[in-house]
Amino acid sequence: MNFVQRIQENAKKHNKTIVLPEGTEERTLKAADEILEKGIAQIKLIGNKAEIEKLALGFGLKHISRATIVDPLNHDKKQQYIDTLVELRKKKGLTSEEAEKMLLDPLYLAAMMVKAGDADGEVAGAANATGDVLRPAFQIVKTKPGVSVVSGAFVMIVPDKSYGENGMMVFADCAVHPNPTASELAEIAVETGKTAKAIAGFEPKIAMLSFSTKGSAKHEMVDKVVEATRLAKEMAPDLKIDGELQSDAAIVPSVGSSKAPGSEIAGQANVLVFPTLETGNIAYKLVQRLAGAEAIGPVLQGMAAPINDLSRGCSVSDIVNLVAITANQAAAM
Prior knowledge:
It is a single chain. By secondary structure, the chain is of the alpha/beta class. The chain has 13 helices and 11 strands. The protein has 2 domains: 3-142 and 305-332, Rossmann fold (3-Layer(aba) Sandwich); 151-295, Rossmann fold (3-Layer(aba) Sandwich), CATH 3.40.50.10750. The chain has helices at residues 3-14, 26-38, 49-58, 78-88, 96-102, 106-115, 130-141, 182-200, 220-235, 247-251, 253-259, 277-290, 316-332; strands at 17-20, 42-46, 68-70, 121-124, 151-157, 168-172, 205-209, 240-245, 271-273, 294-301, 307-309. The chain has a 6-stranded mixed sheet with strand order 8-7-9-6-5-10, with helices on both faces. Strands 3-2-1-4-11 form a 5-stranded parallel sheet, sandwiched between helices. Strand 1 (17-20), helix 2 and strand 2 (42-46) form a beta-alpha-beta unit. It starts with a helix and ends with a helix. 51% of the residues are buried.
């Protein structure tokens, strides 16, 4: 069973409810139909019921009738959500009229459904920019208690099975936070370890990456990684974390044993934590293209409930897989 099959099978066991706010978008509807057919998750679609049903008929979809359709203009939780949003944003002086208008936006409505526990997670972005997807999430769902930063991880599946966990690795942060502080980088490391367990299904061996290995170079950027490693170990003493390590020392056993003798991570890392978004984003794209790796994500980490953002160029299968991942994240919380 490959990774995609495994996450889908695991999602079926949890029977989570995922809201898809782009309920009239073609790929989203086709993905919802497949998800419902396979039993990967329960689905809530946001949009006009008649329009969604007409589109589903035109696309030849047979399972959309099993989805719950929530119309932003008229639904039974409307006043409850307005009151909750006013309370959440009272320091900003939000009025009931303003809250009602905001909740006509499917992205705000979806985030409120997650906040209220009426959905276990959300997947969006097929028709909306990342900023538009994340803004309601940050304002309404917010981060986990004790977590100050949201990050984005990719599950990387490389053809060479000698790397990582039988060819599978998790990279972060590759999507969200440009230049984390040492404490933020430590949080990212811990959350990425949790992602590896919940989604990739393996025990994480986390390498905190740098251009230095165990003091081979001196620089404030190295110091940040050293401090982040120390803080991450304090935050999660049960996780296997080591740094600072160069990338070859992290994943090649012979290099790891030479540059960092005695390290239980060097040469064996299956989770790579990059010091900046710049390095993480560049690295995952290079590995994807040059090594022919499959890059699954980004999976958002650190949110109080799972909300994940798609690329606007996504395929139907991308949506199906991200819904499965979101369901697994929800089950692990």
